[in-house]
Structures are given as C-alpha cells and as structure tokens.
Amino acid sequence: MQNRIIKLGMFAMLLSLITGCELVGDIFEAGMAVGIFIVIAVIVLIIWLISKFRR
C-alpha cells in the first residue's frame, strides 16, 4: 500500500514538472512575440523620424 502511494506521488510530481516546462516554453514564446513587435515598432519610428527630418 505504501509503495503504491509513493509511486502515485512520484507520478504526480512528474506531471507537474511536465506542465511547468510547457508553461516556461509558452512564456518564452510570448516574450519572443513581444520582442519582435518592439523591434518592428522601433524600426517604424526610425523611418518616420528620418522622413520628418528630410523635409
């Protein structure tokens, strides 16, 4: 009986680690998307500033 409880506990910890890794992966994907958005916004801002100073 006690061996079964230990196995169930180990299985539950393994499942929580797998979902934790998935969460970290999702956070990095979201961070990458935000980073790409910021880079595009900065490039657009630079192009806009250059076009304003050329006039």
Structural overview:
The protein is mostly helical and 55 residues long. It starts with a helix and ends with a helix. The model has no long low-confidence stretch (mean pLDDT 82).
Q: Any descriptors?
A:
mainly alpha, 55 residues
Structure summary:
This protein has about 55 residues and is mostly helical.
- Which class best fits the helix and strand makeup? mainly alpha
Portion of residues in helices?
over 70%
Q: Compute the number of helices.
A: 1
Strand content: under 5%
Query: Could you tell me the number of beta strands?
Result: 0
The helix/strand order is H
Global morphology: rod-shaped
Question: What value does the average pLDDT take?
Answer: 82
- Biggest pleated-sheet summary: none
> What Rg is obtained from the alpha carbons, in whole angstroms?
24 Å
Query: Which regions contain 5 or more consecutive residues with pLDDT less than 50?
Result: none
Beginning-to-end CA distance, first to last residue: 82 Å
| Oligomeric state, counting identical vs distinct chains | single chain
